[in-house]
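Dissemination and training. As part of the outreach component of the grant, students in the summer workshop were shown how a complex can be specified as a set of sequence lines and then modelled as a single object. The example used during the hands-on session is reproduced here so that future cohorts can follow it. Participants entered these lines:
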Amino acid sequence: DIQMTQSPSTLSASVGDRVTITCRASQSISSWLAWYQQKPGKAPNLLIYKASSLQSGVPSRFSGSGSGTEFTLTISSLQPDDFATYYCQQYNSYSRTFGQGTKLEIK
Amino acid sequence: EVQLVESGGGLVQPGGSLRLSCAASGFSFNSYWMGWVRQTPGKGLEWVANIQQDGSEKHYVDSVQGRFTISRDNANSLYLQMNSLRTEDTAVYYCARTALCGGDCYGTFDIWGRGTVVTVSS
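and obtained this result:
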């Protein structure tokens, strides 16, 4: 199976900050990578697919980049609603796998 | 409103069985692959199984292969039959819709239910 590793595990930031989360795949997944946001007690919400395509309804301050084995999710200017846990997910193979998550906390 | 509602979770002893159900509404259920994803505090999110629109193709994570069976019917319902349950199957189980966008998002999950809790313990 393809392993997905996110860094950092926890990130402390302030409203208005620009933040970047990294996701690395154990083998090349081309651009078949998605990002999700999850808030406590809620299901994940799809933000980005195919590494850089914004899902409908997602604010433009979210962006994704990368290909092959290294990917990033960037939030250009943090808003109070953005403090949550973020997960990457590969869909290069039928055996989908998620990263372990990055918790974005208020500094 | 597009909605997925899971049911059937509960407490079961190791070795026991449980059947999860997911009722879909607000979209053309027969047009989408569907899946189950589970979440534990320790292991995070884990994809469990997927099923094609007509039920002819199914895929499972290795850890449940041979124990779990995913299925669907024409009444807008998705199921997960879980047999030979283990303590490590304890999790919140989400029903999720595979996204459609011309192929680029195929394999992602754009609609999720609220989840149902499965606890395997003696």
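Chain A has no helices and eleven strands. Students were then asked to discuss how this feature might be tested experimentally.
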